[in-house]
Amino acid sequence: MITFTVAPCSFSGIQGRRPIDGISVGESLLTVHASPEELSAFKYPRRGNAGLRRQYNCRRCIPFTLKVSASSSKASSLNSSHFPSHFMFGTASSAYQCNFPFFNSFLLVSSWAELVKDRSNGDVAVDSYNRYQEDIEIMKTMGFNAYRFSFAWSRLLPSNANLPSIVSPLYIYLFYSKVVGWISAGKLSGGVNKQGVDYYNNLIDSLLSNGMQPFVTLFHWDTPQGLEDEYGGFLSSNIVEDFEDYAEVCFREFGDRVKHWITFNEPWTFSSGGYAGGPLRIAPFRCSHWQLDDSTGGDSGTEPYVTAHHQLLAHAAAVNLYRLKYQATQNGVIGISNVSHWFLPLSDSKEDEEAAQRAVEFMYGWFMDPIFHGDYPEIMKSYIGSRLPQFSSHQSDLLKGSFDFIGLNYYTASYASNHPQFDPQRPCMFSDRRLKLSDERNGVLIGPRVGSGWVYDYPRGFEQLLNYTKTRYNDPVIYITENGVYDSTDESSPKEEALQDVSRVSYFQGHLEAVHNAIKKGVKVKGYFAWSLLDNFEWSAGYSLRFGLVHIDFKNGLQRHPKLSAFWFQNFLRQNRPIENSLNLSSQNLQLVDSTY
């Protein structure tokens, strides 16, 4: 066990008192600056620590004492100094989840704005649009040297950039969308929004001036509503040209400073969640009528493959454009972020071993094989048949090698077993795999369940996926563009409980160890981005799932409160020696404070 104390403040009421050591994580205590005798008098009340802080006038910090189990002494001493020089450590976010001001720049309408208005939405989200300087300061204080975020397509190419600024945005929206029925947000013909360009220029410049490299994602699931209305968004091949136009605006306006571009975030999730009723529902919420009652229409046996096909073609077009016109002078790199779980066979049978490999091919290979080999995996072509679109020889040539790096998002792992039953009358991308997934084998979970849903803490799967990528895909450069875990905090619970994200600390420690192990085996991992900096809008789950290192108080002005994991990361990033050799962190070298205490 390693014990380290985080005490990020100076305080008046208890000067000279020693922080308490030895409070175990299992007791789930948020400790305060007080003596053991004083805490003992309160019998370590689960929810009494805020009162103790008030009693001892500790107003400006969230001090923690933490015992972390480690599988080995080497694991316990892991910190950023053990990674290669110039390794990127950052956090990640997306535009609609954090900062999509609905009326700030006229018709910034994404498909989400139309579909979730009656429920929670990302119109304000955590207001990073107005508070990005505050968020950058948090990241800088924690020690990150990179930040991954996305541009909002319809912020840069709204429907009204060429209209006089005196015209009311609300009037334009009501008139065109309700009377005329025309919203062309997303098309270059609508003009480039100067306010949007200015915002991203300010964000990028501020990141660079604070020592952080911007990693920009062009598309993170917020299709402009105008393109949905005009031709069905990614259901139409027309999207390829419009996406290329949008990408060129981004390269031209920001490429002198942005050196890492990501075309698409998780095309698998967008196609499965948006067009097949997947576990994470994504706008436009389409799927076959027999799957979900609230479907907006669709066909789960064809549309996921069509939209994936068009994402890949749009990716290839953007990469080709960048290489032909911008890369030589801007000296940047470009790639795509794919997601995959790791899949293990449920049994030792050959059928289950093949099912596990099939699961990887249908999730990961679906998008990796085309950019490496110019075509889909053979198993997909065999199982799906004519429902899987085909690439022309020209398209295949554009796709092959259309990356400088691979972005990899990993969260969890599952067991796979063979399940040959298939109903041809109800085709779906999930049943096309002819397998079943399970989170347990012989009554034992694949890893500790984190939160209340689908994430299981299985870092070994992360290492195996990295090694698989190196072996199967010719040893590419990899950035871990997302890795993290959520908790489902009851809003009625005290904030202190949400700040004690012990399971997240354990998750990050294990998964960073997995990355380190993969690097030692020769995998070319160049960076790691935690998902996410802030609790934010988690798509169809709204604000009920919290992935952030920083807690957002949605009831009190979106105040930012760093969690235990934020302090852990700061220690991991700032220390150049083993943790056990630097237990007590003073206010001089740990300044991340919660000013609301």
Automatic annotation (TrEMBL):
One of the Pfam families matching this protein, by short name: Glyco_hydro_1
GO biological process, one term: carbohydrate metabolic process
InterPro entries for the chain: GH (IPR017853), Glyco_hydro_1 (IPR001360)
TM regions (residue ranges): none
Gene Ontology molecular function: beta-glucosidase activity
Keywords: Glycosidase, Hydrolase
Family recorded in the similarity comment: Belongs to the glycosyl hydrolase 1 family.
PANTHER family: GLYCOSYL HYDROLASE (PTHR10353), MYROSINASE 3-RELATED (PTHR10353:SF137)
Protein name: Beta-glucosidase
Source organism of the structure: Linum tenue
Organism classification: Eukaryota, Viridiplantae, Streptophyta, Embryophyta, Tracheophyta
